[in-house]
Amino acid sequence: MTGMDVSRASAVMTIGALAPLLLLTGCAKHADFVELRDQLSTVSRSQDQDHQRVDAVLRRLESVERVKDAESGKARFEELSARLQKIESRLVKLEESAGQPSAKLDAAPPEPRPAKPAKPAQPPEAGTIVPGVPGITPTSAFNLAYNDYLNGKYELAVSGFQRFIKDFPGTSLAPNAQYWLGESYYNLKDYVRAIQAFEYLVAEYPGNEKVPAALYKLGLAAAETGDLVKSRKNLKRVLEEFPTSDESKLAKNKLAEIR
Q: Quick one: where's region Disordered (predicted)?
């Protein structure tokens, strides 16, 4: 029997017990009896509602307990699974480490003899243009010779510029190579060949930007050989033909020295 049934039975018994008393005493009217019955019915309904609330709370508590038990069991299961996986991994590692020494002994190949290192090829000397080297550009060839000039290796610079003029005569760097060939000879104090190189530049490339410098160096080289007439002639050409050039002032000062 549920709590609701108990309440109803209690209310009925209460009414049944009070009714004879009221009739025997004769002090109760019919309206009083009806009012009392209604009050008892209200009390019974209130008790029924209270019992329903209690039952609902109990059912919720039972469901919460079941959920907690299920979650706890799941967490425990996951923990045990993780521990089992760790143990299996350790066993696999132990088996592998136990089998490695014998495997190495059985499968170890004979040690190869170290190969004798090949003798490295000697690189070409700086500034030397190797004949037949594919892919070398005019700029690279010029820079090789010019770097030798800057480093004071004038003989190597002469060879490099001569080779450049021979291999790349029609390029835009050919006049520059001709000029620095003359400068290389000048620094070697080979003034005759320096004069020849500068004269060739002036004759073959009259509109080139290196012509004023070539004329000025012609004047210096001629003065070194003692040919002052030729020296003054070239220095005057600088003043007359290239008055705004950087070499014009230098040529004027040199002319003042040799007069």
A: 97-129
User: In Å, what is the CA distance from 109 to each residue of 97, 104, 146, 208?
Assistant: 20, 9, 56, 71
Query: pLDDT tens for residues 160-184?
Result: 999 999 999 999 999 999 999 999 9
Select the CATH number that applies to the domain covering 138-258 from these four: 1.10.260.40, 1.25.40.10, 1.10.486.10, 3.40.1400.10: 1.25.40.10
Q: Grade residue 258 by pLDDT with cuts at 50, 70 and 90.
A: confident
pTM reported for the whole predicted model: 0.50
Three-state secondary structure readout of 151-179: CCCHHHHHHHHHHHHHHCCCCCCHHHHHH
The SS3 call for residue 129 is coil
